[in-house]
Here is the input.
Amino acid sequence: MKLKKGDQVVVLSGKDAGKKGKLLKVFPKTQKVLVEGINIKKKHQRPTQKFGGGIIEKQAPMPAAKVQLICPRCSKAARVSRNDGRRFCKKCKEGIDKE
Ligand SMILES: [Zn+2]
Here is the structure.
């Protein structure tokens, strides 16, 4: 998994294509990510005694392959290379993670 929590990513495909957001969570086992404000599913909730019912918005994880990292150095959607455990942007060759 080349993505980490806190990364800025852009969505490549689907209804949220082109949108940007922060990675809230990474699920390495399923290769999925949770992106802030992206892939929100609306769920209808039946009224209960405590809750009046209505529509609940819930964020759903999406495949990591559908997002691409935005390099914090050059601000472009970039591929990532790894070297000695550190991540580098393939566009500007700068390190992505802060020292
Ligand atoms: Zn870069």
